[in-house]
Amino acid sequence: MIYFTIKAGEAVELPATGNIPRQVHLFNEDSINAVNAALAANRPLLVRGEPGTGKTQLARAVAKELGWAYVHESIDSSSVASDLLYRADSITRLGEAQVMALSLKNEEKDHVAAVRAILDEKQFIHPGPLWWAFNWELAQKQATIVRTESPPQPDGGDYNKGCVLLIDEIDKADTDLPNGLLEAFGNGRFRPPAFDKPIFKNDRPLLVVITTNEERSLPDAFLRRCLVLLLKVDEDTLIDFLVARGKAHFDGDIDEIVLREAAVQLQEDRIFWKAKNLCAPGVAEYLDLVRAVKNMISDTGEQMAILRKIKKFVLKKHPEALT
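Given the sequence above, the corresponding structure tokens read:
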């Protein structure tokens, strides 16, 4: 079954949320095919590529286009696998136990039983992002018990249609994290502590998108359970590639001559830094540069002048360029 039918070259607009500005994701044929293959194979989609190529945007753009619920989890160095499944709030449980101990004035059987029920470990288990993605109704039921909110849906996604889960920058965590997800991904289930039965993935469509910036290698056993999409920049068509994204992101609010000049300047720096085997500027830096120029002044001629003055602050980030 083919779920994702957007055409290559079409854009999906992602409204601003919190501190994240409005974004636009342009789909290419590889992305569309990879999403459909992951859905058909019922496997996570691992997205590789340099920063700024749209790895993170991809998941939300798919969810918005399909009208599915969207759940986002950003990984950091302290993240562990269980964080994605559930979170045991042991601190709150301990605090309530201490309060109960102080208020316990007798050893009546009924009273002790009531206290034990209140302090049951299940009453302090918060559903994690994979729990929401696997079974939204069970996660919502558990969330009601622990008095927490369901994941916000700024794009109006409906979990009854399906869910997209983004696990962003998995390479920031230790290899124990991806290894700890193998059973959940492989068998479609996991069991939180104190639960008699596992949480099973329901029969609704689910797309798990995992991104990596290649800060560390991922375990082979984990890679075998994923499909892999590489989002890359074609150096031969870099300028046209950047201009197209500039037009999509800024919706005609800045002249093409400025977009093209910014792309030319970035290409020059990119060639220089790649020759030195150092991280080169890419799509993210290009959009930052154009956004800064656009927000500083509206006249096209003056934008060109400002671009030349500020480009070094956006494109030249290595010590060799700052002396």
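The first strand starts at residue 11 and ends at 14. Try to locate this feature in the token string yourself.
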